[in-house]
Amino acid sequence: MSRITVNEAIAQAIAEEMRRDSSVLMFGEGVATKRGELVAEFGAARVRNTPLAEGIIAGTAAGAAASGLRPIVDLLFAPFLCYAMDEIVNSAGKLRYLSGGQFRFPLVVLVQSGAGWAVGAQHNHNLEAWFVHSPGLKVVMPSSAADFKGLLKAAIRDDNPVLFFMDLALGYQSGEVPASEHLVPLGCAATLREGSDVTLVSYAKTVQHCVAAADTLAEQGISAEIIDLRSLKPLDEAAILASVRKTGRIVVVHEASRLCGVGAEVAAFVAEHAFEALRGPVRRLTGPDTPAPSSWPLEQAFVPQADAIVAAARDLVGTREHA
Amino acid sequence: MHHSEPAPSPLVLLETMMLIRAYEETLIGIAAGGNAPGTCTSVGQEAAAVGVVHALAARDRILTNHRSAGHLLARGAEPGRMIAEVLGKRTGYCKGKSGSLHISAAELGVVLTSTIVGGELSLAPGVALARTMTPRDDGIVATFFGDGAACEGVFHESLNLAVVWKLPILYVCENNEWQAFVHRRETMPMAQVRDWAAAHGLVAESVDGNDAEAVHAAAARLVTRIRATGEPAFLETLTYRTRGHFEPDDQSYVDPAELAAWRARDPIELLANRLRAAGRLDDVHLAQIRAHVRSVIDEAVAFANASPYPEPAELFTDVYA
Predict the structure, then answer these.
(1) What is the DSSP letter of B56?
(2) Which of A53, A65, A105 minimises the CB distance to B157?
(3) Predicted confidence (pLDDT) per residue in B6-52, tens digit
(4) What is the pLDDT of residue B3?
(5) Cβ of A53 and B98 within 8 Å?
């Protein structure tokens, strides 16, 4: 194991996969400028700057992927995806199907989002659910350095388009990462802590808020199980079901807004498939249906924090006691 | 070494245009009878398709749009598998999942037909990039779009990237004067798209898009240039959509005088008359060609009609690789 930051984990994953497979290339606004080490090792043809034009960056990735390359594109901030929706959703996500399986689209789209840098709503908008709702795409949003590395390597090797969301607040956080080859399969949640009273389901930075909440809950005699979804599509439905059947209670936590968010899908799925196991209502703690503000206290208020998770879990456990 | 493709006989251009016309008119008829979905036809634009496609080599790639039947047939696509696709049959090029609007055929180098106007423009640079990163590959990419797509932002993004990255793309704008239900004159300050392409730094030419031989000559010249330089080029075929946007369409919004003027310059009649005048075609020969393409299309319809629909389970296949 070695202790590295999330940004270092991302850089390692890209370099290792470019070394392993000469069809992997990377382009985007500032990619060659900011990743000089990649240019030095792999050459200017495989590490490219682009015009500031997200549509053509994503479209070029789709065309290249259909022609045997494995592009990684950096679109910088998630709201910029709006300029690339047609290329990602209508082309990369649909053209394999519309071609009857003649083509495949192995590409990775990197974007950052989330509170923590006071960048405001045109740089911070957690759009991951939009892509979960689009056929043919996969969506990943990790929380730890090891998962950033392992999931990015797996995403680059995947033969399908993968949206790789990077929580802005996590880039400079450190974590233990295996020194040897490290791959994390897409579609597998991680059980970060086992527990018996309540399941906390989350992804990205709010996973850490769940960990802090679980510590507090443990001090109060409540045993919380923590599931880090890591992949939002495919969603690890089996892991969610197994946990909620054990605990009977579930709190879903994410920074993206509530309406039609990932938490809505988790809640509906649990209600459909594990209703008999539920000992209280499914709870969701999410960001509000507002643009993300810049001001620090407002930005922090936007994100579900540990104390709110503790309160929701205590409330649910109390539901049982009074039942 | 850059060999250009041998020039096709004008009789081949003529026969291919007549095949495309017969294909389109047959599908219009089937749809009018309620037995097929409507289509966006290429009637009136056949010369652009056959002129450009015959200037390409087998190793080249084609990206096209919702008016793609001419490009596919000129490339050698089987009319039976195309009609099967339109009818939603399993034997179609895309197993019935495309319909008329997104037919691609990897075996013919026809990739990623897009019905999002401009989608083909966004994908073309990546397809071309893959060629440039393959050693000893001098294949190019031809992408067909219309004046409508030229009004999309991605047109400018695509041309700009192709120039700065030196990508071997032949941009073929079939300027057919119609952008769905809006005439080009309402949406653009000038009559030709060429000036926009030239402003982006591409070698840009316009040609009479109803003259198949002129289109072929211009396309062949630009293809040779692209292969030699690796740089993109732009060809505008000035033509006219002589049927509506999407069948059925009564064209009540079309100026009858304008339509009549363009119908008088029908690309098939134009070439047939020229060949007649040169003594290379007579009525007997023309009737033979007409009968031949009729029989090809009749066989294609029979094949498509006899083909099975996909099994319901096919709904869930080909979503992911």
Answers:
(1) S
(2) A53
(3) 888 999 999 999 999 999 999 999 999 998 898 999 999 999 999 99
(4) 61
(5) no
Q: Is A54 known to be catalytic?
A: yes
Question: Quick one: pLDDT at residue B1?
Answer: 45
Active-site residue among A29, A123, A128, A255?
A123
A107 touches chain B (CB under 8 A): no
Angle at B155 between CA B151 and CA B160, to 5 degrees: 135
Query: CB distance A64–B126 less than 8 Å?
Result: yes
Q: Verify whether residue A182 is a known catalytic residue.
A: no
Q: Is the confidence at residue A95, as pLDDT, over 70?
A: yes
Report the alpha-carbon distance of residue B170 to residue B149 in Å, rounded: 15
Q: What is the pLDDT along chain B (321 residues), one digit of tens a residue?
A: 456 778 889 999 999 999 999 999 999 999 999 988 989 999 999 999 999 999 999 999 999 999 999 999 999 999 999 999 999 999 999 999 998 888 999 999 998 888 899 999 999 999 999 999 988 889 999 999 999 999 999 999 999 999 999 999 999 999 999 999 999 999 999 999 999 999 999 999 999 999 999 999 999 999 999 999 999 999 999 999 999 999 989 999 999 999 999 999 999 999 999 999 999 999 999 999 999 999 999 999 999 999 999 999 999 999 999
Do residues A116 and A71 lie in contact, with contact meaning Cβ atoms separated by under 8 Å? no
| Both tokens assigned to A179 | 């020194």
pTM of the model: 0.96
Token pair 């047609």 in the structure block, residue: A86
Chain B residues with CB under 8 Å of a chain A CB are 61, 63, 92-98, 102, 104-106, 111-112, 114, 116, 119, 121-134, 153-154, 157-158, 160-161, 164-165, 317-321
Strands (E), chain B: 61-63, 141-146, 169-175, 178-179, 182-183, 203-208, 233-238
Tell me whether residues A95 and B104 touch, CB distance under 8 A: yes
Distance between CA A107 and CA A64 in Å, rounded? 9
Closest alpha carbon to A138 in A163, A107, A108? A163
Of A17, A54, A128, A265, which one is the catalytic site residue?
A54
Note whether ipTM > 0.90 here. yes
Q: What is the DSSP string of B209-235?
A: TT-HHHHHHHHHHHHHHHHHH---EEE
Per-residue tokens: A5? 């930051």
Burial of A246 (0-12, 13-18, 19+ CB in 10 A): middle
Residue entry with tokens 């037995």: B35
